[in-house]
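hi!! sorry for the late reply, been swamped w classes. u asked for the two structures so here they r. pasted raw, havent cleaned anything up. first the sequence of the first protein and right below it the tokens
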Amino acid sequence: MNNANRNSNVTIAPDGTLTADSFIENGILTEHGIAFADYYDNAFMNKTFTLSAFVKPFGRSVITLSMSNYTNADARANFNISTGAILSYSNGPQDFTDVSGTMTNVGNGWYRCSLTATKLAFSNHIVPNIMLNNGSTTYYAGDGISGAYIWGAQFEISSTMSEYVPKVAGSIVKRFSNRITAN
């Protein structure tokens, strides 16, 4: 968690259970969001990855999905989770290419957003992130009360987003050999 507070199981998730979390920005001038594990392995270079999550507005209407190489480059997609519009894509030219995204309305104000990018060989690190966005940038002074609901984040080696497979506490998800993590 980066400069945001997580409140677990506060609203109904897309699957109808009370398991979706809220992420609320703090008041610091910085980026606010969730940084997942730093995956590093030479086997990850020159592979295509997809990061996806179910998101719903809770004070912020724009979120950014990102994959960073932990050094000097990242791939990003910005999504308006109030209107259902993909706003923009960008890539760190030294280490990511073929950046794209999808956004699917799954009902009750929820969207499933995805970012896909090919990781090149500049660095063997890849860090998936979900960041809050004030509508212009991910780097801003938060208000301490705004954020987003997030559920079902998934990061996988794949050129497309696959069906969400929930991770059950104490178990390992083995459905797909390409799945790195499911939360």
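now the second protein. again sequence first, tokens right under
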Amino acid sequence: HRIQDASRLMDGSIAVVDNSKTLRVYDSAGAHRWTAGRAGEGPGEFRHPTRARQIRGDSIVVWDVAGNRLSIFTPAGEFVRDAAVTALNRPAAAWGTTNAGDLLLEARGGERQQIGGRNALVQTSEFFLVNLSGQVKAELGIRTFVTLYQEVDADGAFSPALFAVPAVLAAGPEGLWYGTGEEYELRLIGEQGVLRQIVRWDGPDRSFTDADVQAVIALWSEDQAPEARNRLQEYARSHPRASTYPAYQGVMVDGLGRIWIQQYVPEHIRTEHQDWMVLTRDGSEILGVVAAPSGLRIMDAGSDWVLATEKDEMDVERLVLRALTRSPVGQS
């Protein structure tokens, strides 16, 4: 029920956290092994667990965003200890662990500005490396997450420019992979916020036309009342637009440290698959492109498998382990 995170452990089993507020582990065939935790604020309990990853020594660390608290369990599901990250003054998201076993955390904030004569909310992210005792080891600096613009009038909600997407990020063995999607480029930010590497690649033309804007508005307008359709037309006419389509819309680092970059597809262009370009862990070489069904939400991957969620014909969410198959060079 509303799976927050799933990851594959070293022995092939699968750890899951979801809205049941428990940590559950299944074997590689999908049979339940054990459940740990329950709803609550005591030791070994959870309020809103969002990340479960294996760390050194085969233990599992679970991040609870509601209390900025990490909990550690043995491979058999026994609670070991927990620690609160008291240095952060707002909820933080966890994006994985580094080779040193530190958690990469992101705390978001916002600042109202006037941009081009419009009310805007510039959302920023602060990144931290935190050890398993809850102590902040390093601050990786502040990056812009996304700029939101007020819709239509002073009473309107805030939303991104048309076709803009938030910045993407993922924890890698050596630090934080970060990109804004404005260029075919990712940056590796190491400890102390030092830029360690820039990876660039070529991609298709990203320009769009008024016809593309009208196509996405038409998609949003399906089954809407005439008044709502008129508001959407005004939104399309007056709301800021990105200068181009984003260069990508997601990034992930798999269990081997390889970089997965999800190619951007405008929502009005319906496709049956999503493409992920896979790079070596240092970004120096493209290993191939993974074509996954469009309904998959990929959470983890290895040399020959992908762990993801999907919904069945009754719109029920389930976790699936799919095999990666390779096509010979020159074939799709």
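hope this helps!! also noticed smth abt the second:
The radius of gyration is 21 Å.
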